[in-house]
Amino acid sequence: MSSLFLVLCCFYFAKRCSVITTTASTKLFNFSTNSNLINSLRGLIYNHIQNN
Question: What is the pTM for the complete model shown?
Answer without folding.
Answer: 0.47
